[in-house]
Design brief:
The chain is built from 4 helices and 5 strands, in the order βααααββββ. The chain has about 200 residues and is an alpha+beta fold. A 5-stranded antiparallel sheet has the order 1-5-4-3-2, with helices on one face. Helix 1 packs antiparallel against helix 2. The chain starts with a strand and ends with a strand.
């Protein structure tokens, strides 16, 4: 319970789908501003992390697959590569609608506020991983307007490279996707910490 956060404009935190072993991730894949499949990252600053799902493998005809990829990407960050946790949501913007991607392109992730968690993690040379636990339908008859709404239950693990303890938090994300140019894209996400 508690601590609701909004990610409607893709300017917030970070993500990943399967729990990773304790191995340290590689620092970065392709060059800054480009996802693993060559897709331009809005704003051009973030570097795609090797640990993220390759966008070319995400089934854009499946709204839940897009939601999983978005949550994973939006909550996965690495203090060796990223200047703020907002670099993660900037990377995740590739899964947004065209209009929201354009808005994300105008956002500078270096100006992100509320970076206490990231700053503390940076002191321990840390990175995050995300494990999606489940994706469930939201509410009664939620998909009648053409949008798809789901609740994504996930865990975010922060792993310090300096040997200090890892920390895992459980979160729920209320995610909405819509058809955009013949494929599913994210229009909104709100998250809340959960008990476990």
């Amino acid at each position: 319970a508690g601590c609701a956060r909004s990610h409607d404009d893709a300017t917030s935190d970070a993500a990943r789908d399967t729990a990773r072993p304790s191995a340290t991730p590689s620092t970065a894949g392709p060059s800054a501003g480009v996802a693993a499949d060559g897709t331009a990252i809005p704003g051009g600053k973030p570097t795609w992390l090797d640990e993220l799902p390759d966008p070319s493998g995400v089934d854009r005809t499946d709204p839940e697959a897009v939601m999983r990829a978005y949550v994973i990407t939006a909550f996965t960050w690495d203090t060796r590569v990223d200047a703020t946790s907002a670099y993660a949501t900037q990377r995740a913007a590739i899964y947004l609608t065209a209009a929201l991607r354009q808005a994300a392109a105008d956002y500078d992730p270096d100006t992100a506020k509320g970076q206490a968690e990231f700053t503390q993690a940076a002191q321990h040379d840390a990175y995050t991983t995300v494990s999606v636990r489940s994706v469930v339908e939201e509410g009664l008859d939620p998909d009648t307007d053409g949008d798809v709404r789901r609740i994504v239950h996930f865990l975010v693990t922060t792993t310090p490279r300096d040997g200090t303890s890892t920390a895992t938090v459980a979160e729920d994300a209320w995610v909405t996707a819509t058809q955009d140019n013949g494929q599913w894209a994210i229009t909104a996400m709100q998250t809340q910490l959960t008990q476990n």
